[in-house]
Amino acid sequence: MTDTSRQPSASMSEAYTYEQLFPLVKATLEAGISVLILGPPGIGKSTLAAALAKHIAKPLIDIRLAQKDPAELGGVYFPNRDTKTLELLPPSWVKKACDEPCLVFLDEINAAVTRLHQAAAYQIVLEKRIGDYAFHPGTIVLAAGNREDDQSIVTPLSAALCNRFAHFEMRPETDSWLRWAADHDIHEHIMAFIRTYGEEVLFDASPGNAFPTPRSWEMASRVISRVQPEDYRRIVAACVGMPMADRFCKYLELYRRVNAEKIIAGQEKIDFVRNSEPSFLYAAIFAVAGYLVHAKVPDQHLPNIVQFLCSPGLGAEYQILLLRQLRSRAPALLNRLKTVAAFRELATQIINLRASLYLS
Description:
This protein has helices spanning 18-30, 45-55, 70-74, 92-99, 115-127, 159-162, 174-183, 188-197, 199-202, 214-224, 232-240, 242-255, 260-264, 278-294, 302-309, 316-329, 331-337, 341-359, and strands at 5-6, 15-16, 35-38, 60-64, 76-80, 85-89, 103-107, 129-130, 133-134, 140-145, 157-158, 166-170. The radius of gyration is 25 Å and the shape is elongated. Helix 8 runs antiparallel to helix 14 (278-294) and helix 11 (232-240) packs across helix 12 (242-255). Strand 5 (76-80) and strand 6 form a beta hairpin. Strands 2-12-3-10-7-4 form a 6-stranded parallel beta sheet, with helices on both faces. By secondary structure, the chain is an alpha/beta fold. The relative contact order is 0.10. It folds into 3 domains: 5-170, 3-Layer(aba) Sandwich (Rossmann fold); 172-256; 258-360.
């Protein structure tokens, strides 16, 4: 017998970041085509589904196939004594998908699911129905799964099911994640660390129960604000593993060398010509940004922010990074800065520099 199943593949022509995928998946779904996103665990596939549902104003029906009994997907049949037939009693999510336009998200679609799971998924994807219950015409289907080489247990999907999807592969990428992180209140220590070292610390599917991924860094962010600094190592290790927690805590020693409060009060300056290590530059930017997001900065201290931005050795790349943090996390403060003449002059210089680099 010919095996017509398909293994999730890591050898697709191109993998996309979260930001690149968003408009592609949105357009495909709006064209009435179901989408399957493959990628390593914890890189943001579920986050993408939730953001899409919010953007297109459809309720999200999140179904983790590996955690569902087939009856929870396809419903159960019960005898109707009046008609002497079996009638389908659908799950509540089916009623919702029939009554109003929804985004049905089939997560973990290939995580060791059975043929019964796949049969239900095939009907959901192909026919947009369960039994006699047809989905609302505006209901769309998005699925996600892991790849075989992601150290995950996967079940081959049938060729017929695979052929009903438009396939995309997702990859982690530092800049995209940091822009997302700035909008979702991720702790500035973590953002500084990941900005400094990039993808090597953002995602590393190393052996062990805990390892760094965008999802596990988000978990770490939620907990470190609730514990004392002396507990950072243990709590971060629980989320991203001990090797990465050790590296993170060593970086924090560098981060804590920056006294943002004194800098903004005009009591301390940094010469980045002498302290030119990129790790320290990023630490300083995020330390100051983190302070400005939470502090009440009096008007008389606004020029000190400009003075910090003009510190010797601090290039335009780092100036822009700080301004991006303020734009996303402290827009009111940024608007106040625009009243300072020195800031307006600096902003003009940055704009002109970026324009000249673009034209060259």
